[in-house]
Each structure stands twice: as structure tokens, then as C-alpha cells.
Amino acid sequence: MDKQKNLTPGAIAEIPRYQADIAEMKQEIAKVVSGTLSDDDFRTFRLMRGVYGQKQKPNIQMIRVKIPWGKATAEQLETLADVADKFPGGDRKGVAHVTTRQAIQYHFVSLEQAPEAMQMLSVAGLTTREACSNTVRNVTADALAGVAADEVFDISPYAEATVRYFLRHPVSQNLPRKFKIAFSGSVADRGLVTMHDVGALAAVQTINGKEVKGFKLYVGGGLGPTPKAAFLLEDFTPAENLLRSIHAAIFVFDRDWDYGRKNRNMARVKFLIEKIGFDEFKKRVLTERDNLKNEVYPQISIFEETPPTLSAPLLAEGGDAQFLRWKETNVTAQKQTGYSAVTIRLHLGDIRSSQLRSLADIVRQYSNGTLRTVIDQNLMIRWVKNEALYTVYQKLSQAALTLPSAGRLADITSCPGADTCQLGITSSRGLATAIGKIFENGHSADADMKDIKIKVSGCPNSCGQHHIADIGFFGGAKTVNGHQVPTYTMLLGGHIGNGETSFGKHFLRVPAKRVPDVVGKLLDIFKAQKKSGENFRTFVNRVGLPALKTELEPLSILPESADPASLADWGESAEFQVNVGKGECAA
Asked: Of 50, 182, 310, 560, which is most buried with the most CB atoms under 10 A?
């Protein structure tokens, strides 16, 4: 089977370079094994190739695979399944993990196996290159790009051009720290452009009587312990200036933020802007863009997806309640008449190898041979004919991939947390699972609530994006009666979209084992006190945090005579102990 089917020309052109990466990786690993290269000296090289240390053992790694702007082909899904079967260890064997940056991660992989995994990925046009380290990371985009009814235009070709231009580019090989780029096609901002170092929001202007495509260009956004909303660099950047403008912003960051190299906690664009002021940063970027006027940039090749040719047999649509609920929560009408996009809700972003292979077959038969990874850790099949929805549902059901409530309240986002991350304090995945159980028992009628999201991080760094959740949590610990207890700081009111960026406000500090009770009680209050048509965010602003705190704070208190089970983290039986290693995010 042709492993490069449905790849862009740019992706195919990169494959020989991936082979060179792999040969170099083997050489460097041999030096580490022989003792001629220290682990510290190897770390920067390793991270540049997407191989990230876990807290369990020195030679056990997480491997991160870039899925540029989220597009994956059927052949790539099969390759990702093969890698999942062969390399991850422990309870992660056979599992691939979808991240909030549309990448794929594998856990518990031995260092010596990394080149073989990279080799298998490269044949299908996939790379780990610059998925970690102080580089331009995976470029992300709205998963509905090209099919969204509300988009200004399809941003996919521009995201693809950005990926290919900055991969391996000299300017992005040793930045003060990571640099993140995102694209959205509409003001709904499903790509979250205002929380990125550079965010591009599609826009159109009429210039000299001609409609010109371009972008509202944002700079300096980011989450982490200190979230910052991006600044609008330009109200309209013509598409022909897109790569030059991003290049200039990266150049200024690289050249002018040596302080960030010395203080890695301050090594992001948002802190450079805080130091010199936005007006000065903008001036420097525009000056550098002018200095780059003689730089040759590739012409952006415009491409469009075409409807698939459907020859597979279809089942007559059934009217069973489970299908109708799934159709309501997981199916979005495309702007192309007669087609829909289907969201596959993944529990905590995990998918098994057998499910990846089933998806490969489904997208070949009922779509156009591709799907999208989604920034909320889900997957999306596009170009499904409406008359094929029931058949696709049945095929997905056979693969256990028909969880409803996609994008709704029960669809909880979580970072890996203490399960694998060096910086993780608490088991965010364990908590997300525990909260999810209330939507199976007691609050099942609330699972499909719209316009309310829960996001969980295992530490303050916001990899679970807790700052932009309606209900957000980040992990910590406190001492109670001489014992360490896992806790979560609860935030309310975060949101991005429709021209608004608001970060959640600190609300309560809650022992981990009490968090599901607090969430359940908050939902009860919301349902009892909300006005007609009022969403959760508006409700919180109207009622106010002090009033809500009065009702919920009693649930957040851990009794002095706490039983041993309350001292353990979710998913653990032993008494909790903080176990934080040296993070590699800023290495």
C-alpha cells in the first residue's frame, strides 16, 4: 500500500530528510550508551527530535509525533497503530495519545527503540522533528477548516505552508524557548489563536477593487502559570506577507530575548512583550519584516479537498435513541450541502491501535481517506455523506468509538499529569475520570450541556488548558495533620472565542477526592438558579464568585480525621507524596 497517499507535496519532499535525522539519532544514542556523550549534552539533541523524558526511569521516554495542522491519512493511522503496538510499555502498550496540540504521543518507550519508531513513522511521512524543545512546535488549526459554515476561507494551505517553511529553518533551531503558531478560519476561533505566540485569524479586505485574503495577526499569547492574551499585531496582513511576518516575529524573539535564555521561566514571547512593551515589540517586528523584503518565500499552493467517491454499501438509518443522541452531539453539518463532519470523542485523548486501524478503513470507505486530530484531544472524520451517517455510526460502534457528548460538558480535557510528566504533581487523568463518572450516575442528564467545558492540569503549567475552561483545575498539594494531600485549585469563567479571551478566576482550593462532589453541587446550583437562555459563563458573572463560594466552600474542607483513602490521589492506593522531577519543557 502507498504509505504516501494523500500527503501534500511538501510532506513528501521532507521524507529523505527524516532518514538523515534517524541516522544521526542512532549515532548520538550510541555515544550515550558508550559513555562518550553525557545525558545532559544529549538532552537538547534528543528533545529536538521529539523524544522527551518521563519521570519513571532515565531511559524511558515519551515520543511525540507531529500531525501538522491535524491532518492524518488512513495510511498514517495504520502506521501510528503499528508504532503503538510495538514500542510503548506498561499499561500504555497499544495506546496512542492525542494531545491538545493535535500531535500524537507514545509513553514508556525505551531510548534505544526511538530510532526504529522514527523509521516506521518516516515511511508514512510522519516526523518527531521539532515536536519538543526550543523550536517552532506543531502548527495547529481549526479541525473544521475547509468545511466550516462560518469560516472566512480555508486556512489549511496557509497552515501547511507555515509548517514546511519553518521546519528545520535556521531561525527556529535554538530559540529562547518553544514557539507556538495556530490558525483559525472564523471569529469562533476554534484554533485558539489568541493564546499562541503567533495566531492567524482569517480575514478578507477589498484592495483596489479586488478581494484579498489575509489574516488578523496576533502575537504574544500563551497559558502556563501566567496566562496572557495575545496582542493584535496587524488588523490585516495580506496572505503574501504571512510567512515574512511570522519569520520577523520569530527573529525578534530569538535575537532580543537573551534574558529568557538565562531565566527559562520567563522565556516566552509574552514576557519579552511585557519587558519592552507591545508598541516597541510591534515596531521591531515590522522593522525586521521590512529588512526581510529580499528574502524569498515559497508561493503558497492553494489546495481544496474534494468530495469522496462513495461505493461502500449503506445501512438504512435506524431510529434508536443512542444513535440519535450521538448524531445530535457528535455530528456537525458542513458548508458543503449533503456532507457532515463526525467527531470521535476519545476518553482523555487515548485511542488503541485496533481502533486506529478501524478508523483507517472507515475513512477510506466513507470519507476521503483523511481525518483530523482536534485540539480538545478528539478526532474528526469529515466529508461523510449524510445518508452514510448511520452506517459510519455502526462501524464506529464496532470499534467502541461512539462516545456521545463530543465537545459538551462530559468531554473533559486533561494533560498526562503525574502519571508520566516530570512536572506533574497530581494525577489529572485520574481526576478527569472521576469527574466523568458523575455524568454516568446522578448527573447523566447534564452530560450533553453546551457551552461549558471542564479542563484539568496536573500542575500550574496549564498543559490541560485549565485557564480557558468554564471550570478549570490545576494540581497542587497541602499538608493536613502531618500528611500530604493532593489538591486542586479551581478556576471559573475561562473562555476563548467570538472576539473574547478571558482567563478563569481562582475560586477554591479543593482536596482531590472532593472535586467531583464540588462539580456536581456547582451544576445543581447552576440548573436551579440560571435564567432562561443563560449560559454558564454568564451565570457565573451574574451570581459572582463570592456567592458561589459560600455554597461550595463547605464541600472543599478535608476533615482533620481524614481516612487514609482521602489522602491518596485518584487511581492510587498509597498515601500521596509529591514526586516532581526536573522538567524538560525549557531544556
From this structure: 182
